[in-house]
Amino acid sequence: MRATARTLALVLALGALSLGTAACGADVAEDPKGRSGEAVTLTNCGRKVTFDKVPERVVTNDVGITEIMFALGLADRMAGFAMPDDKGDLAGVPWRDGYDKAKWLSKKKLNKELVLDARADFVFAGWNYGFDEGEGFTPAVLGKLGIDSYVLTESCRNGGESSRGKTRGVMPPLDALYTDLRNLGKLFGVEERAEALIKKFRAQVAEAEAAVPEDRERPRVFLYDDGRDKPFTSGRYAGPHSIITKAGGDHVMKDLMDSWTTVGWETVVARDPDVIVINDYGDVGAEQKKRFLTSYGPLKNVSAVKHDRIFVLDYADLVESPRNPAAIVELARYLRGLRR
């Protein structure tokens, strides 16, 4: 998964979040004092994991994971991050200074050599967000090197039968975000900061939900990531499910017990979404994706295409990240404006 540009509306929303977070305490973006050195045990992907010390040289993979660290004020604990160079204009991101403090290690995903070169003592990544058995880069491999790790909760494997037991997702997407904030807050001794963020995010989401019209049917929404022969999309356990649902939409792929996965176009046509949300990132941008969707023959009678109801959100909105609540606000505003 990769990062991309921000829209003006999200920049404004994130600016408001910055002010709101600062209201919880002016030191939110400052260096944390941290906790004392006693061991901490956390539950990560259903396993109890004990960390004997506070990590001092953290390496992260991808934008959402990196910005979780920044939002917690932990940039000073980082040895660096791996991320593509399409993360866009960050001027309005509340934790923008984190990018100035932390070292950009690679424009590709993490690997063992990068981690060793950075002298990391902790890796925060996820399955398909850096961790990859085929590449020999896993928590188990790192453990043998004396390097601790934490797996992004959105990416936790749930033991499903598809993809040889590698389906992902163990809890609702926003709960995954709050779980990671709370766990990392405990590990790094910034629990008050984590709880302040969670409180702010919950209030932001609740306000968006409260504005959802009760007198009309929820619009059916499909998330389009990429893919021509088959679309890559979001199941129940990836960020778009919570974003669509909390914003007042009916997520048409909510029955897929996975996070990010592939379906057939015939399934999309049968479920006839009223709105398609495009995930904007990578070499094939949102405009190219929209041109494909509007010119692809099998979709010509799908409601979203017929009525030109195609909405764009950025990658960093849609993967697990502290940008998720602002994305809910943005999509909710769009859905409320639809004429039925």
Estimate percent helicity: 25-40%
CATH-defined fold name of the largest domain = Rossmann fold
- Structural class, please? alpha/beta
Number of helices: 13
Would you kindly provide a written description of the structure presented here, covering whatever features stand out?
The chain is an alpha/beta fold. It has two domains: about 10-205, 3-Layer(aba) Sandwich (Rossmann fold); about 215-335, 3-Layer(aba) Sandwich (Rossmann fold), CATH 3.40.50.1980. It is built from 13 helices and 14 strands. The strands form four sheets. Strands 3, 4, 5, 6, 7 and 8 form a six-stranded parallel β-sheet that branches. The protein has a four-stranded parallel β-sheet with strand order 11-9-13-14, with helices on both faces. β3, α2 and β4 (about 80) form a beta-alpha-beta unit. α1 (about 10-25) crosses α13, α6 runs antiparallel to α7 and α8 packs across α13 (about 325-335).
Provide a compact summary of the structure.
The protein has 340 residues and is of the alpha/beta class. It has 13 helices and 14 strands. It folds into 2 domains: 8-205, Nitrogenase molybdenum iron protein domain (Rossmann fold, 3-Layer(aba) Sandwich), CATH 3.40.50.1980; 214-336, Nitrogenase molybdenum iron protein domain (Rossmann fold), CATH 3.40.50.1980.
Spell out the blueprint of helices and strands:
Layout lengths: L7 H16 L16 E5 L2 E5 L6 E4 L1 H9 L6 E5 L14 H5 L2 E3 L5 H6 L4 E6 L2 E2 L7 H6 L3 E4 L21 H16 L2 H20 L9 E5 L7 E3 L4 H8 L3 E2 L8 E3 L2 H7 L3 E6 L5 H10 L7 H4 L3 E5 H4 L5 H13 L4
Parallel strand pairs: 3-4, 3-6, 4-5, 6-7, 6-8, 9-11, 9-13, 13-14
Antiparallel strand pairs: 1-2, 10-12
